[in-house]
Amino acid sequence: MSGFVGPSSFLLQRLDEPSGRVRGHLDLAADDRAGEVRRHVLLGARLEAEHSRWTVLSDPAGAPYCITGRSPRSGFLDR
Fold first, then answer.
1. In this model, does residue 52 exceed pLDDT 70?
2. Number of neighbouring beta carbons within 10 Å of residue 36
């Protein structure tokens, strides 16, 4: 993949909603969360919410997912 700089990590996050179109979503870990969010928005994602350790986006079809501040290598939150 051209431009690939480092490892990727993902987590399937189960949502608390008992029903609905989507009952879980993907959490992607990124070394540079802000940069990764910008890249996803440029590729067609919609910014839904910013939190201190994660950003909620939706894909072009409307499905939610998050980009987190967790380390792609360890899975731990950066301090």
1. yes
2. 19
Q: Whole-prediction pTM value? A: 0.70
CA gap 18, 51 in Å, rounded: 23
CA distance 59 to 69: 19
Q: Which of 72, 76, 74, 60 lies closest to 33 in space, CA to CA?
A: 72
* 55 vs 52: CA distance, rounded Å: 8
DSSP state of 33: H
Kind and range of the H or E run holding 64: strand 64-68
What residue spans of 1-79 are helical by DSSP H?
33-42
CB 69 within 8 A of CB 32: no
Beta-carbon contacts of residue 59 (< 8 Å; ≥ 6 apart): 44, 45, 65
